[in-house]
Request: fold
Amino acid sequence: MMMNERNVILYIAASMDGFIAGEDGDIGWLSAVERPGEDYGYAEFISSVDTVILGRKTYDKVLSFGIPYPHADKQCYVVTRTVRPDEGNIHFIQGDLAGLVRQLKEQRGKNIFVDGGAEVVQMMQQQSLIDEYIVSIIPVMLGNGIRLFKGTTVREDLRLIGSRSYDSGLVQLHYRTAGK
Reply:
């Protein structure tokens, strides 16, 4: 990797059966692996990024927690179908996601964090815009809900960079796309 090459990294949790949320968008099941003092590498990861791309539903879900927006110190791009004015470093975008990613990768900076949701992940995966996948598998089976890789039709070969298991049962998988 070149010194100023920026990678687009999906960092996300999924149930053992491949869901990122329940049917109604519920993510309460993520607490099944909460352990005092254990962040599963999140602090290290988040310090390696300065830009976040996420979907409008995910953005709204985060705001519904009633806490300060956790990425306020980063450039954020919310993918939405509705035109909205920017709010400081939060930019609401429609249209050319590939163009945005190209533009961001041409700029100097840290890595780019894809924070979900499923529709944004699908759009980015379909266009081969994701360089790395860090997926934390939570030891729970939801049975139904919102799939992480819904509607995936593009084959993508991946290389394992690493894996890590935790006492809570969470297993974190880190892959890089083979062509990148």
